[in-house]
Design a protein that fits this description.
mainly alpha, single chain
């Protein structure tokens, strides 16, 4: 009796390994790891924002609408529970992505306003924050691309024969990809150049 159970167990292991069960597990874990890195980089950007806003406020307090826009966009992101399970909920994932996109737009407006304040552009603290933000935007792009590739690989396995049979048997379903309305725009980190001389009025 025990021998039959052992043989049955070995056969199950062989069948499952041949039908993509292990691959489904490993690619699902890769998605979780990639998503965790996306969240990590977004959090890094979110953590930079209060210092950035306060620095700009010190030089350009009159830009209340722009400063408030950045603060509100940051708050909206904080209201969404960014858990690993988020990648399994297309509706919540879309809300999260849209909130991040709104924050990107608000930051772009804030940095455009800075052009009107030469003394702010030359402030060492601001320049350091700007460099950190630029580096973070680049890291976000890299992390997002890794996540997109991980989802693509996983979804291909879930849909391919014979691993699709294993996926159905164990409840593995395709996961939503990272998409936003202005995907082309946000795939490029904002250009921030404070060294370009402005044309003088003639």
């Amino acid at each position: 009796m025990r021998n039959r159970q052992l043989v049955a167990t070995i056969l199950c292991v062989l069948v499952l390994s041949g039908c993509g069960y292990n691959t489904l597990q490993s690619t699902d874990e890769q998605i979780k790891a990639s998503w965790a890195e996306v969240l990590n980089q977004y959090k890094r950007r979110t953590d930079l924002i209060p210092n950035l806003v306060n620095t700009v406020k010190g030089f350009a307090a009159q830009e209340k609408d722009v400063l408030l826009g950045v603060t509100n966009a940051r708050s909206k992101i904080g209201s969404i529970q960014a858990t690993p399970e988020l990648v399994n909920d297309p509706e919540t994932l879309t809300k999260f992505q849209n909130a991040q996109s709104e924050l990107s737009s608000s930051l772009s407006r804030l940095l455009a306003v800075v052009e009107n304040y030469p003394e702010l552009k030359s402030d060492a603290n601001f320049r350091d924050l700007q460099a950190q933000l630029e580096g973070t935007e680049n890291r976000i792009t890299v992390a997002r691309n890794r996540y997109i590739k991980a989802v693509q690989e996983y979804n291909t396995i879930v849909r391919s024969f014979p691993s699709n049979l294993t996926a159905m048997l164990f409840g593995f379903q395709t996961k939503p990809g990272f998409t936003v309305e202005n995907e082309d725009e946000i795939s490029i980190a904002p250009k921030i150049d404070f060294d370009t001389p402005r044309l003088k009025d003639k």
